Amino acid sequence: MTRRFVLNRIVDATGTSGAGIVADGVEFPSGKCVIHFRPSPGSIIIFDSVADMISVHGHGGQTVIEWVD
């Protein structure tokens, strides 16, 4: 089942993207996930798993996943 999520940045440690919803994402049945950073055009990045994505963009718990479905 494909699941959608957003990345909610509680604290912007780098001063780059700001706080709040910074990206939209999808997790596929294979486990792979894709994120699209806001605002458009933003970048699109493919990861092998949600865990891999969070290890890069989670900023030590300062960015959290909020599942849409």
Please give a structural write-up.
With 69 residues, the protein is mainly beta. The protein has one domain (3-67). It is 12% helix and 42% strand. It has one helix at residues 50-57, and strands spanning 3-9, 20-27, 33-37, 44-47, 63-67. It has a five-stranded antiparallel beta sheet, with helices on one face. Strand 3 (33-37) and strand 4 (44-47) form a beta hairpin. The longest helix is centred in the last third of the chain and has 8 residues, at 50-57. The chain is globular, with a radius of gyration of 11 Å. The mean pLDDT is 89.
Architecture blueprint of SSEs:
Layout: E1 3-9, E2 20-27, E3 33-37, E4 44-47, H1 50-57, E5 63-67
Antiparallel strand pairs: 1-2, 1-5, 2-3, 3-4
Provide a compact summary of the structure.
This protein has one helix at 50-57, and strands at residues 3-9, 20-27, 33-37, 44-47, 63-67. It is mainly beta.
> Could you tell me how far the N terminus lies from the C terminus, measured between alpha carbons in angstroms?
10 Å
Mean pLDDT: 89
- SS field, number of helical segments: 1
> What is the β-strand count?
5
Q: Which stretches of 5+ consecutive residues score pLDDT under 50?
A: none
Query: How many domains?
Result: 1
Globally, the shape reads globular
Order of helices and strands: EEEEHE
The biggest beta sheet is recorded as:
5 strands, antiparallel
Share of β-strand residues: 35-45%
Strand line-up in the sheet with most strands: 4-3-2-1-5
Rounded to an integer, what's the Rg over CA atoms? Answer: 11 Å
Helical amount among residues, as a percent range? 10-25%
Structural class: mainly beta
